[in-house]
Amino acid sequence: MKIIFFTHSTFVLKIHDKYLLIDPFFSGNPVFDNKNFLKCIDDLLIRVDYILLTHAHYDHVCDVELFSQKFHGVLVISNYEISNYFEKKGIKTYGMNYGSFISFPFGKLKYVWANHSSVFNDGTYGGNAGGFLLHTNEGNLYISGDTSLMSEMNLIPIFGKLKLSVLPIGGRYTMDIEEAILASDFLKCKKILGVHYNTFEEIRINKDEAKKKFYEKGKELILLEMGESICI
Length: 232
Ligand code: NI
Ligand code: MN
Fold this sequence. Notes:
Elements: E1 2-7, E2 10-15, E3 18-22, H1 37-44, E4 50-52, H2 58-61, H3 64-70, E5 75-79, H4 80-87, E6 93-96, E7 101-104, E8 107-113, E9 130-136, E10 139-143, E11 164-168, H5 177-187, E12 191-195, H6 207-216, E13 220-222, E14 229-231
Parallel strand pairs: 3-4, 4-5, 5-6, 10-11, 11-12, 12-13
Antiparallel strand pairs: 1-2, 1-14, 2-3, 7-8, 8-9, 9-10
The chain binds nickel (II) ion and manganese (II) ion.
Nickel (II) ion binds at residues 55, 57, 116, 146, 173.
């Protein structure tokens, strides 16, 4: 499984020959100047088969329509309310809610609870916020989405050992570094990909300090640059 990180909570999972884009946030993203996100997309995003959306906040869904138009046949996977919202715009969707694994060509996917809110910029209700637990024959991955630390994270490793967890670390709207370290205890997962930091002033962190704090607890915090990828 390959993970290509972009910025904020946006990344691509390549599992076998399938490309999954998570929480696309390019066009409204302050990290990109003068619309150079289009070049970034052209250089790095060669294909998208699925778009996974954790919740309806703008910094997670703002480019769903752009990618649905750019890549023919994209399937948007999210909770029932978010799926309905995009289905009405003519996009192919797969809605789900908490409670079961669902099989897709890339693996088994479970929509899981997150402790957060979920509303579209136009005021439309976005269902309950969530994350994804993904089991594949290349390993298991937990994507928490925007959330605080929560005791429900203790349930995640019951379903199977995790290779990696993708957790927000920027604070203010989500977990900070301290909570993410505790989350990794709950998840029984020592390898964390940190997301949702440094995109806005209010979620700024010191990357070296953050890595050191994880390291001191016997854990690894991976922080990727834009376009950088890892294989797990
Ligand atoms: Ni959010
Ligand atoms: Mn967010």
